């Protein structure tokens, strides 16, 4: 795995730990720009900020979409 992929995955893991969940089904809220900014204020990154944000948001979108799929399949059971 490249250092860029490793850095992004580690960052997503840390940022995601601060995620909030809402509603009766405890749906995950999306990661915000503020959460990324807070992370980057403590951790240095050599990745361009726009690219960093775009990748974190893309990973988060995928995570949340899979969460919805799992929730729907649990409701059917």
Structure description:
The protein is mostly helical and 77 residues long. It has a domain at 30-63. Helices cover 68% and strands 5% of the residues. The chain has helices spanning 3-16, 33-42, 49-76; strands at residues 21-22, 27-28. It has a two-stranded antiparallel ribbon. The longest helix has 28 residues, at 49-76.
How does the SSE layout of this entry go?
Layout: H1 3-16, E1 21-22, E2 27-28, H2 33-42, H3 49-76
Antiparallel strand pairs: 1-2
Helix pairs in contact: 1-3
Summary tags:
77 residues; two-stranded antiparallel ribbon; 5% strand; mainly alpha
Gist of the model:
The protein is mainly alpha-helical. The protein contains three helices and two strands.
């Amino acid at each position: 795995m490249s250092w860029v992929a490793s850095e992004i995955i580690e960052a997503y893991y840390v940022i995601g730990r601060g995620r909030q969940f809402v509603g009766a089904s405890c749906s995950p809220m999306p990661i915000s720009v503020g959460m990324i900014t807070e992370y980057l204020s403590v951790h240095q990154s050599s990745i361009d900020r726009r690219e960093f944000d775009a990748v974190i948001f893309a990973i988060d979108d995928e995570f949340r979409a899979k969460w919805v799929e799992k929730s729907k399949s649990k409701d059917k059971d």
